[in-house]
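Pinned message: reference record for Nitrite/Sulfite reductase ferredoxin-like half domain-containing protein
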Amino acid sequence: MNNIVSESLIVKPIKRKDGTYVLRLCVNQGQLTVGMLKTVMETMTKFNLTSLRATTGQRMNLEGIPDDKLDEVIASIGVAVEKPLPEITVCPGAGICVYGVQETRSMGDKILSLIQENGPYPYKIKTGVSGCKMSCGLSYVRDIGLIGGPKGWDVSFGGAATRNAGVGIPLGKAVSSEDALNLIAKALVFYRENGKKRERTSGMINRLGAEEVLAALK
Ligand code: SF4
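Predicted structure (tokens):
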């Protein structure tokens, strides 16, 4: 480990019921570098922290940080932010997974940029990108969902894995990457302009009607 350079991480502190804190390590698409791992390991050792847990959004939670040590732990690990980048779940995709027919990682990055460019939004947006119809990226139940097929992407909008779980409405079938991004950009603007405060895309579509939303996005 001596010749490995430590890397700083972006973290979001979250208070827990018992008064301790979790630091959410905001890694992109679940990808940790060796330098990041070194930082995390050294911090955990230094502060005697024993729990690092993967989240559903492909991030990591460093758990059990005492209130009076929070600032020191943050300084050791990186930089704290109020609002991390939106959550995105991206499967390995073509080139890595034997079933993958579309490349997912660069598509995930492009969607994340689109989400940042078009905000702010009424509430959170979760995205899923899957390289084939197996949908390991949870695409069917994400606000923005992409599913790779041999001829392009199926794009859906307004899926949710909440208590009102449901699949998103279809915005496009077998479309090119460029067309998929254009469809997503339109949907993001529609949500920004029509969603109510703290209303997810699924709630907005339920309120306005799927057919009306699809017609508006044509
Ligand atoms: S969705 Fe398809 S490409 Fe992605 S990990 Fe699952 S099986 Fe592989």
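Pinned by admin. Summary line: The two ends are 54 Å apart (CA to CA).
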